[in-house]
Amino acid sequence: MTMVRQQPATQAGTPQPEPRRRRTVPRGVLNLVSVLLGIGIWWLLPTVGFHDIPAPPEVAGRAWELTVDGTLGGDVLASLLRVFIGFVLGVVAAVPVGFLMGWYGPIRGLVEPWVQFFRTIPPLAIIPLAIVLMGIGETPKIFVIFLASFLACVIATFQGVVNVDKTLINAARVLGAKDRTIFARVVVPASTPFILVGMRVGLGSSWATLVAAELIAAQQGLGYRMQNAQLYYDLPTIFVGLIAIGVLGLLMDRILLFAERHLTSWQERR
Amino acid sequence: MIVIDRVRKVFPLAGAEFVALGDVSLELADNEFVTIVGPSGCGKTTLMNILAGLETPSGGRALVDGTPVAGPGPERGVIFQQYALFPWLTVRKNVEFGLRTAGVPAARRREIAEHFIHLVGLDQFADALPKMLSGGMKQRVAIARAYAVNPSILLMDEPFGAVDALTRVRLQEQLLDTWSQERRTVVFVTHDVDEAVFLANRVVVMAARPGRIVEVIDVDLPYPRTEDIRLSPAFATLRNRVWGAVYHQETPA
Ligand SMILES: Nc1ncnc2c1ncn2[C@@H]1O[C@H](COP(=O)(O)OP(=O)(O)O)[C@@H](O)[C@H]1O
Ligand SMILES: [Mg+2]
């Protein structure tokens, strides 16, 4: 057993050296510079002719007012709650359906045409129908969000199952595993990366759909607040809404990205 | 004992039939180390898959200890060229996989895994993920994993095909080392003539179209096989014989 000593332990885990960058400015610094530059340009816009655009201090002031009187908090909470319920329901429904589609040919044959069909319809286009059928309460909004996350996630899960390396399944079989064990201990872990990517896509799609749904019919929420502000030409509030939507969307994406990195750290990345 | 009795395998091919294996017969005694060499496409993998129970023959039968092969079984361990380690499991968990499937209690599992991880010299990597291992190390994990369920037969399909020449020589020595400590019947497919002769007590040479056995060559070199043996005239003579059988086949047009 001569090989043991020839493989120094340090060599194994160390990441490969990154290709040399020409400049040595860290990326975080560049990101910060970019953000500051963007805000600077925004600040200049009103002074060079775009008089309607509110300057950053005005927007910050409005954000403060809306925060203090509780409006912003209420809107954020209402929007997040809707997206959360719809998204979770969508994922919970999509994962088993996706697994069944990938594992059993007949189920795939039965379900796939509908999934493919509804995938071509933007969830927003369902809103008129949903409102007519479900009224203007929470149900139609949650339903379209559910649809958005379900469709993204079901396709990803299905792809994950279909793409499981056949040799891994054979390896499990020759080690004595039967279908049930192969499913639980090979197919599920092997498709996790796909499912997590599907969840991220689904969350992005849910968030976009939600805000649009609130523009159409809601009594509270970030979309509603902006729609309302539009009636009064209240540009600072619209800006507050836009920034809140962007920041929250980014935050949610980062949380899922973190979970994804963590849960799929076994993957060989290059 | 393995009996391959007029095994035939036919694949449908563009409306016609493609004979991947035409009436192949071979017998293997217990604890033999048999290597199979032949040009690519001569049906080596097909034959292995039939023995493993991953494919069924179109004709003839494969018997293991008198019982026809019907599906995979724990008495036959398989080692694939692409390693086929579960990338989300550590080395230890990979080695324990078959034991867990068989319902072996955790403490006993760990003990057995430890033994075979040690046997292939990977003690320090027991808790590492496959992505941290080199190709040669991955294949040693696969060997330990196959051994752990205590098969009487090991089927290895070009297991060292994807590693560099130097590592390959060491893996061969190490495999023989492991095999001498834990004797099993080994069927080892390769397209490397040197490897075939160095490992085997018998070399089976196959030819393509249809896939068939053209020659079986006894390797009467003693074990343990050392570097001296690898460099000996006797080895060279055998290697040349196998080489001739593989590369001077009359291929039907
Ligand atoms: N599932 C299959 N369908 C059709 N042809 C196949 C299939 N599997 C193998 N073959 C053909 O059978 C022949 C033998 O294949 P294989 O056993 O993989 O050869 P080897 O391992 O010796 O290279 C090849 O010509 C291959 O194309
Ligand atoms: Mg092959």
From TrEMBL, chain A:
Pfam families: BPD_transp_1 (PF00528). Residues 1-22 are annotated as: Disordered. The keyword Transmembrane helix applies. Keywords: Cell membrane, Membrane, Transmembrane, Transmembrane helix, Transport. GO terms for cellular component: plasma membrane. InterPro entries: MetI-like, MetI-like_sf. Residues 76-256 form the ABC transmembrane type-1 domain. It is a multi-pass membrane protein. The chain crosses the membrane at residues 28-45, 83-105, 117-136, 142-162, 182-203, 231-251. GO terms for biological process: alkanesulfonate transmembrane transport. It is found in: Cell membrane. Residues 1-15 have a biased composition (Low complexity). Belongs to the binding-protein-dependent transport system permease family. This is ABC transporter permease. It comes from Mangrovihabitans endophyticus.
Automatic annotation (TrEMBL), chain B:
The keyword ATP-binding applies. CDD domains: ABC_NrtD_SsuB_transporters. It comes from Mangrovihabitans endophyticus. This is ABC transporter ATP-binding protein. Keywords: ATP-binding, Nucleotide-binding, Transport. It comes from the Bacteria. Residues 2-229 form the ABC transporter domain. It holds the Pfam family ABC_tran. The lineage of its organism: Bacteria, Bacillati, Actinomycetota, Actinomycetes, Micromonosporales. One of its GO terms (molecular function) is ATP binding.
